[in-house]
Amino acid sequence: MVRLSKNDRNDWREGIGKTMRVLFWYCERFDWTCAMKTLEDAPDAGPAENENSVVAFVHIEPDDVEDGSSAETKLVKNSKWLARKWEITKVVLHSFTHLGEEKAEVTRAKALLDRARQRLENAGYSVVQTPYGYFLNLVIKTRGHPLARVYKEF
Fold first, then answer.
1. How many Cβ atoms sit within 10 Å of the Cβ of residue 5?
2. What is the pLDDT of residues 75-112, one digit of tens each?
3. Could you tell me the CATH superfamily of domain 17-40+49-145?
4. Does position 55 have pLDDT exceeding 70, yes or no?
5. Per DSSP, what are the bridge partners of residue 37?
């Protein structure tokens, strides 16, 4: 059972000098097919089906990829925190450049997601990244629970 304490709620609200924006979802089902290629050099990609996952819709801004930024670490820690709350180990990282006006340069943003994936895998999580450089058709099934959709800026 998922429990939301007062301290948990406060942990999600704090933060100053925010840049990265993440919309976390707990998804009973998160599937995709590629709809449109947006980056010419993106590798071919196919569909995928995922069950019982924390899905992070990640908007990476220019400051997030600069040396000394804590955004990557906070993305990893918050993904792990929410997965623990749902008692699961699967995380999906989805580049979602629609949560803010500025975007990080493509190769640096992709590198940040790749590093976050590696760190989560090193911590024992099963991690999937949606195809980078595509608009996707999505199938999402989630629960009506306070921790099923959580927005975070850091």
1. 8
2. 999 999 999 999 999 999 999 988 888 899 999 999 99
3. D-tyrosyl-tRNA(Tyr) deacylase (3.50.80.10)
4. yes
5. 134
CA distance 139 to 92: 14
Cα-Cα end-to-end distance for the chain: 27
Helix axis angle, 71-86 to 6-13, nearest 10°: 150
Report whether 154 contacts 57 (CB < 8 A): no
Please state the domain extents for the chain: 17-40+49-145
Instruction: Quote the pTM value.
Output: 0.86
Exposure string over 86-122, b if 16+ CB within 10 A, otherwise e: bebbbbbbbbbbebeeeebebeebbebbeebbebbee
